[in-house]
Design goal:
Structural class of chain A: alpha/beta
Number of helices of chain A: 13
Radius of gyration of chain A: 23 Å
Strand content of chain A: 5-15%
Oligomer: homodimer
Order of helices and strands of chain A: HEHEEHEHEHEEHEHEHEEHHHEEHEEH
Mean pLDDT of chain A: 97
Distance between the termini of chain A: 26 Å
Chain lengths: 426, 426
């Protein structure tokens, strides 16, 4: 039976520290090389979709109805792939365009277009404004924050709880006309794994921001990514925004990066038809069309929503034991010690760990020295600054299960050591 | 024996006009639906590369050396594909990154980055400047001009001759610090088909523009696209710029859009290592990596430079008769009439036709009414304004040969009719 650190005497803490140091040195001596830093699918998942590579074989296979997918054109994407995405997201096909291999690219380009040309309801391009502010629910996705940081937006953190971002604060902040948008990962949020509640989703859709060109960047990255239980239906933000009189306030993004292949999937964007018309005009300067052959390959392989959800069950069968191993490891190794807590997601790609405040950076540093790469501490916050220095994002998908167990063991020892160092330094 | 229009009396012109009107009405009555508007490969060319679709079949096939091309990462592109492009362009592999399916996208993004973040040697992003001017050799590629127009650059036309842009004028114009760059299609230029002379290429590389962040956008779209004769070696602009002390002044672009598939090829960008480092840092905000599976598919299919050039010979065998049909048709139908001239390219995708000044728009309009779609007259000029209203771009690649012959017949009748209308209105 382990004793919580808070209940230990200084001598007990010292003894615990010495014990963890010994364990740490032993682990370090193993010369491990493990990676829990990014949400990359593992080899077993990639192997699941090898069929994707051979669904197109003949010249006749290259047509989507009468459309020759090999040639230039059709910047909105091929009809069948737009339909598949419309079905997966629960939107209308007219609201969907299918792009290249990365939703991040579509997201960056959307922000870039707002910056260079403005949005549908902008008075001028955002680059002509003195100040653009942006709401960042935290902890959140580091690559989102890198995009808005790169354009010089002032990022304002908004705390998240199990229901999503703090809507009282959001509703207060959007009264500032300089606040132009918000990042959202509404389902199995990166990294906490929470699903935005119906109330949060409705309040977001019903917002009346001072900025008439306010934009919700709705990154539905994990829209069908349950690893525990069946597919969970989720409200369609597009029709909700429409219902509340804000039809052009949101752009939704998704991709098959974690359905088929991370580097070679298809990404999509869904928004009001008015927005779409505006974006497609600007997109017409940038490209003659995205890779339609890969779109076709995907439709032939994924077939329809039902068949796609069946594939997700096969991914789940690979992922669930990995997430279980993380949660079990944390529970066993540090649960009783009372200084840490973590999320218990049922989908998505991350476990969000809260270690003792002031020790996240140190924990990640100790991990690195012992050969375990974690996402840099602070990354889930704008400018990489976690005010409490307590959040660590765990990405269990890439390592095989045995490696993952070893990595979690290292992480736990490092979290304990960092906590003990801090307690003893006080 | 036809008589030149300039040698005809007014009555003869009237008789000719009546005859062409009759011919035009007959053609119109056929209800044709033909397209010579864009440089799209025809079905026969697309069929040549069906092997591309089945070169990857097994999980083991998905590796480029030890790199798993299915997963995230490697934003510079896979090593073997970068090497192939380095060989094709005659540059070093360190200078090459391979992107997605469209070089236009890479070009737009390069200009966009200059606008939003600035180039390596910029004092500030171009969006923070009062004025950006840009040199546009004319006639040129309409999509280039659309990009620079969309960012509000002031485009300055620079006349082209058989050796490339007028370098005396270019050297004069770059003394203005607001002039930030130039578009170039150096080999089989779009649409004139000329190859920049060694003198022009050297003078471009040796320029000393007032703007220290001046950029040559070197769109080598037709780098291996001979349809008559063998591959013509072409100077490497990167090493020439380096030689003249301007290593960071140029970015080169190319793609397999007209080697494999127009919508599903791979595009690349080549530039100095200093530029590349700068661009990759910014690109890191936009994407985790381009589609490496398609890059791998291309390397497996194209193999190497020699094998790629052999494929280009097969494209040439399809294209050469089409270009011949255009040139023969023009020679036969309007050559003796003395009011028009046209290019005789040995590579690339276009024939550039000069009709009687003041009649290009009318000619294209007449074509459209008779069911033949041409690139809008004026498009090869900034803002769509051909000052002489005489240039028409002919794209012979898409229609099958019989359709092409019919389309050229229509074009010739329309050009004659427009010329006669003009002569009779004077």
């Amino acid at each position: 039976m382990m004793k919580a650190y808070s209940a230990m005497t200084r001598d007990e803490l010292k003894a615990a520290r010495d014990q963890e140091l010994k364990a740490y040195d032993q682990l370090k001596a193993k010369g491990l090389k493990l990676d829990m830093s990014r949400g990359k699918p593992g080899a077993e998942q990639l192997d699941l979709v090898i069929g994707l590579q051979s669904v197109i074989q003949t010249n006749e296979d290259c047509f989507d109805g009468s459309l020759d997918c090999r040639n230039y054109g059709t910047p909105m994407g091929i009809p069948s792939c737009r339909q598949l995405w419309a079905d997966l997201l629960g939107v209308r096909v007219e609201q969907v365009m299918v792009g290249g291999n990365a939703s991040l690219n579509l997201m960056y380009d959307t922000i870039a277009r707002a910056y260079t040309h403005g949005l549908l309801h902008s008075d001028k391009p955002w680059c002509k404004l003195d100040k653009v502010k942006w709401l960042c629910p935290v902890p959140g996705y580091d690559r989102h924050f890198f995009v808005t940081e790169s354009f010089g937006f002032e990022m304002i953190p908004v705390p998240m709880d199990d229901n999503g971002p703090d809507m009282d604060l959001v509703e207060e902040l959007i009264r500032d006309e300089a606040v132009k948008g918000i990042w959202c990962v509404p389902k199995y949020s990166n990294p906490t794994g929470c699903i935005y509640s119906d109330e949060v989703v409705n309040r977001l859709a019903a917002m009346k921001p001072a900025a008439k060109d306010f934009l919700i960047m709705w990154d539905n990255a994990y829209c069908i990514h349950e690893f525990e239980g069946d597919f969970v239906p989720f409200p369609d933000i597009l029709s909700l925004c429409e219902k509340y009189g804000n039809p052009d306030m949101v752009v939704e993004f998704a991709s098959t990066s974690k359905v088929t292949l991370p580097g070679a999937g298809v990404a999509c964007m869904a928004t009001s038809e008015a927005n779409m018309k505006y974006f497609m005009k600007l997109m017409g300067f940038q490209t003659i069309g995205y890779d339609k052959m890969n779109q076709l390959r995907h439709v032939r392989f994924l077939k329809d929503k039902e068949h796609t959800l069946a594939l997700m069950k096969r991914h789940a069968a690979v992922l669930a034991p990995k997430f279980q191993a993380v949660v079990d490891g944390l529970e066993r190794e540090i649960g009783p010690l009372g200084f840490a807590s973590w999320s218990h997601p049922k989908g998505g790609y991350f476990v969000s760990l809260e270690v003792m405040p002031g020790t996240a950076k140190r924990t990640v540093e100790l991990c690195k020295e012992a050969g375990v790469v974690m996402t840099p501490a602070g990354n889930p916050f704008p400018y990489g600054k976690d005010p409490k220095d307590s959040n660590i994002r765990i990405a269990p998908s890439l390592p095989p299960k045995e490696e993952l167990e070893a990595a979690v063991e290292v992480l736990c020892v490092c979290a304990k050591l960092a906590a003990l160092e801090k307690l003893l330094a006080e």
